[in-house]
Design a protein that fits this description.
mainly alpha; 65% helix
Length: 196
């Protein structure tokens, strides 16, 4: 790299580009500080919310995702009539497109810009502390899905679980969920048993 010739030696072209980097970094400092201020301001409000305990119990949620998930669900539970409605509202439900005899699924193009990343990013964070989420991700990857597609599928599954916990106002318990999987005879529980 040291011996490579420069693309251009024209000072009129290289000098403005040298100034562009620090300018862009300076512009990013403003939104970074605004995001930090929002996180600091929302944390105490989330702690006082009566449903905060539901989201603090989630694996991988922590102080970052628990308040964001709380905002995603909101205080009015009747707003989403079903888990499917919540998935569509959050933008994590896939859309099936059809043309002639072919059909395919694709990412929902219209969706809230903050809810979808909240669910998907938290689902990725849940891979470490949740044993069934790890196995689910491995199953999706074995089917040939990329990591991001597997995480989106996991977010879709998590949203159904969160909807149920929110409706019943009971915190998530991994043991209870694993028992439900066992009761239904899920293939996920068999794969989990083999992995243990």
């Amino acid at each position: 790299m040291q011996s490579a010739p420069p693309l251009t030696t024209d000072a009129g072209g290289s000098a403005p580009h040298a100034l562009l980097g620090p300018t862009l970094v300076a512009q990013l400092r403003v939104p970074w500080q605004a995001l930090a201020d929002c996180a600091t301001a929302s944390a105490p409000g989330a702690q006082r919310h009566p449903d905060c305990f539901l989201f603090q119990a989630l694996p991988g949620a922590g102080p970052v995702f628990a308040p964001r998930l709380l905002v995603a669900f909101g205080a009015q539970r009747a707003r989403s009539a079903s888990a499917a409605a919540l998935q569509k509202e959050a933008g994590i439900a896939p859309v099936t497109a059809r043309s002639g005899k072919k059909s395919w699924g694709h990412w929902r193009l219209q969706g809230p810009t903050c809810l979808r990343p909240t669910f998907v990013t938290w689902a990725a964070e849940s891979l470490r502390p949740s044993c069934w989420a790890q196995v689910y991700d491995q199953q999706q990857r074995a089917k040939g899905q990329a990591h991001q597609a597997a995480v989106r599928a996991l977010a879709f599954t998590w949203s159904r679980i969160l909807y149920r916990c929110g409706q019943e106002r009971t915190p998530y318990d991994e043991a209870v969920y694993l028992q439900a999987l066992h009761h239904r005879g899920s293939a996920l529980i068999h794969t989990l048993a083999k992995a243990s």
